[in-house]
Amino acid sequence: MLLRRRILLPWLFSAVVMYALSFLWHGVALTDLQELRIPLPLYLALSGLVYVVLGLVITIGVHQSIMHEWISLKRGFPLMSMLLGAAVGFVVYLLVFILGMSFASREVVHIVVDILWQMLEQGLGGLMVSFGLMYDMHRTFMDAERAK
Q: How many other CB atoms sit within 10 Å of the CB of residue 50?
């Protein structure tokens, strides 16, 4: 049960939030999904898989950062988790851009806006991981109090 709350909850919470933000950005705000060259259900399934992996990467990254004391639970924990998520978003965008899989045109303005959005999206995923971990810490405290 503890592992489920500590890893699974933040992981899935961040993945769902990032996936929803991606859909809102590409599907509603920019209407990029209308220009897909692959079937929409396949795109949605593959992007869902990508966000599950990204959520796991950010969750493990936050856990490792806490273990190695790169992120302190006492000072700016949610903001540092967001920063870690934004760094992951930057790396992911660079990979996607280099491989030529980006929705953005090659104009500088579109590239800058797209990379900032990607960093915001993954940054919010990092924030969701921190919220999941804070929930776990709260539940662990409450379980310990009930046991007394």
A: 16
Residue 107, sorted as left (phi over 0), alpha (psi -120 to 50) or beta, turns out to be beta
Q: What is the DSSP letter of 35?
A: G
> Stretch 44-62: mean pLDDT, rounded?
95
Structural domain spans, the chain: 2-139
pLDDT score of 2: 52
86 by Cβ neighbours in 10 Å (0-12 / 13-18 / 19+) ranks as: buried
pLDDT in tens, 94-123: 998 888 776 656 678 888 888 999 999 999
pTM beyond cutoff 0.90: no
CA separation for the pair 103, 106 (Å, rounded): 9
State residue 104 phi and psi, 5-degree precision.
Answer: -70, 145
